């Protein structure tokens, strides 16, 4: 696995920026790195709950504080990731602003729409930029047909897409948790 990540890192210097975005391993690794690291460091200490009857009050308070910190930082990011993964597992985004191209595919089927079909666009980001779940955001496209498409940050960084759609009745919102 280390060799594959290293080779992809090295070849990324020689490749051009992609225009087709899907949920990839590297994007998921980028989003889940800190929450999983926090869990890996904190979970061995949480194994002390097995010895609950033998712990002093002081040790129990420290253990509860550690559990609250580890789970409080990691679980929201893991829940958001699972929700985004379920939402955009089979979604493909084709985005090329230079060619004025934005297409969304669900599975092998293209969802037909043009810019004039967009009633409004919601771009939701996280208020804090320092939490494990701050990289999670989503873009919700409301079409004139009543259909709604949701693009999540699991596909790509959505800021350039939101900038591309800035003249399409874009509403920017910020939340603590960007649940879809």
Automatic annotation (TrEMBL):
Pfam families: PH_40
Positions of the PH domain: 20-163
InterPro entries linked to this entry: PH_40
Keywords, in A-Z order: Membrane, Transmembrane, Transmembrane helix
Transmembrane segments: 29-54, 60-80
Protein name: PH domain-containing protein
């Amino acid at each position: 696995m280390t060799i594959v990540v290293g080779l992809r890192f090295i070849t990324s210097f020689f490749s051009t920026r992609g225009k087709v975005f899907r949920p990839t391993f590297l994007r998921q690794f980028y989003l889940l790195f800190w929450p999983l690291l926090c869990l890996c460091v904190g979970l061995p200490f949480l194994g002390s709950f097995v010895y609950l009857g033998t712990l002093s009050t002081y040790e129990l308070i420290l253990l509860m504080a550690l559990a609250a910190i580890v789970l409080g930082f990691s679980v929201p990011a893991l829940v958001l990731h699972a929700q985004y993964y379920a939402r955009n597992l089979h979604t493909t985004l084709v985005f090329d602003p230079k060619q004025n191209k934005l297409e969304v595919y669900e599975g092998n089927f293209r969802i037909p729409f043009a810019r004039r079909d967009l009633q409004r666009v919601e771009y939701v980001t996280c208020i804090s930029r320092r939490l494990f779940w701050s990289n999670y955001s989503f873009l919700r496209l409301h079409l004139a047909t009543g259909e709604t498409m949701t693009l999540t940050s699991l596909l790509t960084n959505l800021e350039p897409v939101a900038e591309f759609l800035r003249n399409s009745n874009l509403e920017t919102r910020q939340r603590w948790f960007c649940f879809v």
